[in-house]
């Protein structure tokens, strides 16, 4: 993965250049199918650095959206939307790097389903 250095920072503090992709699980509206059960929530365990990065990115996204929402003298530009999308991609990248936490109940159900299927066959 290539990186781009931040202005005035060393390459060691570079941000990854992320591809422009639709969100995980994205289905175009023309191909969408609706089911009765929602997808399982994904839980992640963050370390201190990841938690702080998610917090800062969230505040930056909120600030950009809020500061552009009520512009009277000028309208928001495509660059404003692109800035928000970049921050959201970075936030998702940090989230994806966090360790996944599988609840005990889900692990137990998975284990039982595997062992019950193999014992009946």
Structural classification: mainly alpha
Give the percentage of residues in beta strands: 5-15%
The backbone outline, from C-alpha atoms, is elongated
Largest sheet features: 2 strands, antiparallel
Q: Please count the helical segments.
A: 3
Q: What's the quaternary structure here?
A: single chain
Strand order of the largest sheet: 1-2
What would you report as the Rg, rounded to the nearest angstrom?
20 Å
Separation of termini? 45 Å
- Residue runs with pLDDT of under 50 for 5 or more positions: 1-14
Measured as a percent range, the helix fraction is: 40-55%
Number of strands: 4
- One letter per element, helices H and strands E, the order comes to EEEHHEH
- What is the average of the pLDDT values? 76
Reconstruct the topology from this structure.
Elements: E1 3-4, E2 15-16, E3 43-45, H1 48-69, H2 78-97, E4 99-101, H3 104-120
Antiparallel strand pairs: 1-2, 3-4
List the main descriptive attributes of the protein structure presented here.
3 helices, about 120 residues, single chain, disordered N terminus, mainly alpha, two-stranded antiparallel sheet, two-stranded antiparallel ribbon
């Amino acid at each position: 993965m290539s990186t781009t250095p931040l202005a005035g920072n060393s390459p060691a503090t570079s941000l990854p250049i992320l591809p422009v992709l639709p969100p995980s699980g994205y289905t175009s509206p023309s191909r969408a199918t609706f089911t009765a059960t929602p997808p399982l929530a994904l839980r992640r365990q963050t370390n201190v650095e990841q938690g702080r990065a998610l917090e800062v990115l969230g505040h930056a996204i909120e600030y950009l959206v809020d500061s552009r929402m009520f512009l009277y003298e000028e309208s928001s530009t495509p660059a404003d939307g692109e800035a928000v999308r970049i921050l959201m991609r970075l936030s998702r990248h940090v989230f994806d790097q966090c360790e996944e936490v599988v609840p005990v109940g889900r692990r137990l159900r998975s284990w039982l389903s595997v062992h019950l299927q193999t014992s009946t066959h």
